[in-house]
Design goal:
four-stranded antiparallel beta sheet; alpha+beta; single chain
Length: 230
C-alpha cells in the first residue's frame, strides 16, 4: 500500500526532481565526483552526497550474534555482494529481537526520537523513521555543509550517553559500546523505491510482531500519536 503523505512527508518530494540526484555519472568529471562520494570504513560501503535521499539503518552493538556475522561475512567477496546480502541478513535477525533490546524501554526510545528530530529542518529533512527494540530505520535528506557520517556519529554519541544515564539510574549495567560502529545506507533511486522504503519503515513493527497496525507503534513517524500536517 502507498504511504500516507500526511504522516511521513512534510515536503512534497513526489513533485521534486530527487530522482535525478541519484543518477549514475554521465561524464568524466561526474565519474570522479561519484567515486569521491563513496567510502568504506572497512566493511560496508557508504555514499555521502549533499541532497541525496537515503535510507539508513543503525543498530545496537549486541543486536546480532558474532558467529552469525562471521559466517555470512566469510561468504561475501565483493562490495555489492556485501551490501545486499549483509542487509538482508541484518534485517532478518534484527526483527527477532536479539540482545538487550534497550530501545524497547520507552525512556530510551524517546531519547532516540528526540535526537532524530532535534536538527530536523536545520541539518536534514527527517522524512520517515521507526525506533525498534534493537535498531533504527530512517529516511533522510542531508543539507549542504553537513555529511551523513558526521550526523550519524552525533546521533549515536549523544544517544549512547543519555541511554547509559537512564540504565545506570535504573540500576542496570549495559554492555559497551551501546551502538554497533557500522551503519547501513542506501540512496533512493526513484519514486517507487521512495514509497517502498517509507512503507517498509512504518510496517517494520508489524512485520516483527510488535503490533497489529503501523499506527499502534508509538516510536515511528507512522504512529497515530504523530501530529498530522495541515
Amino acid at each position: 500500500s502507498m504511504p500516507r503523505k500526511d504522516v511521513c512527508v512534510k515536503k512534497d518530494y513526489m513533485n521534486k526532481s530527487f530522482i535525478n540526484v541519484s543518477q549514475q555519472p554521465c561524464n568524466e568529471r561526474e565519474e570522479r565526483e561519484h567515486k569521491i562520494e563513496w567510502y568504506s570504513r572497512g566493511y560496508l560501503p557508504h555514499r555521502d552526497k549533499i541532497g541525496l535521499l537515503q535510507s539508513i539503518t543503525f543498530r545496537l552493538a549486541d543486536s546480532l550474534p558474532k558467529k552469525v556475522l562471521g559466517a555470512h561475512a566469510s561468504r561475501m567477496h565483493n562490495e555489492e555482494e556485501k551490501s545486499s546480502k549483509y542487509r538482508i541478513m541484518i534485517e532478518k535477525y534484527l526483527d527477532q529481537g536479539l540482545g538487550s533490546c534497550l530501545l524497547h524501554k520507552p525512556q530510551n526510545a524517546k531519547i532516540i526520537v528526540n535526537a532524530l528530530k532535534f536538527f530536523d529542518n536545520e541539518r536534514y529533512d527527517l522524512i520517515a523513521y521507526v525506533v525498534m527494540p534493537n535498531h533504527v530505520h530512517l529516511l533522510v535528506r542531508i543539507y549542504e555543509a553537513w555529511s551523513l557520517s558526521k550526523i550519524i556519529h552525533s546521533w549515536k554519541s549523544y544517544t549512547a550517553k543519555e541511554i547509559l544515564k537512564v540504565e545506570k539510574n535504573a540500576g542496570g549495567t549495559p554492555a559497551l559500546p551501546v551502538w554497533q560502529k557500522e551503519y547501513w545506507d542506501r540512496y533512493i533511486r526513484d519514486e517507487n523505491h521512495f514509497n517502498t522504503v517509507i512503507e517498509y519503515i512504518h510496517n517494520n513493527p508489524v512485520k516483527a510482531g510488535l503490533c497489529k497496525t503501523q499506527e499502534e507503534w508509538r516510536w515511528s513517524s507512522g504512529s497515530a500519536r504523530v501530529p498530522r500536517a495541515k
